[in-house]
Amino acid sequence: MTNPNCPICFGLGWVCENHPHLPWTREARGCxxxxxxxxxxxxxxxxxxxxxxxxEKPDPLG
Length: 62
Prior knowledge:
single chain, two-stranded antiparallel sheet
């Protein structure tokens, strides 16, 4: 289960694969230059990480 108080991913449960010390988000202090990977706090399992918070709404501007 994802730690909502994680100081690395800020509760998202995902980090940038290239910069695992940054949350995988477009918001400030985040990074999406690489693929997302589960944060160390996201211990749902190696085969089935918690993806419930990853789904993003499509950008209406494309």
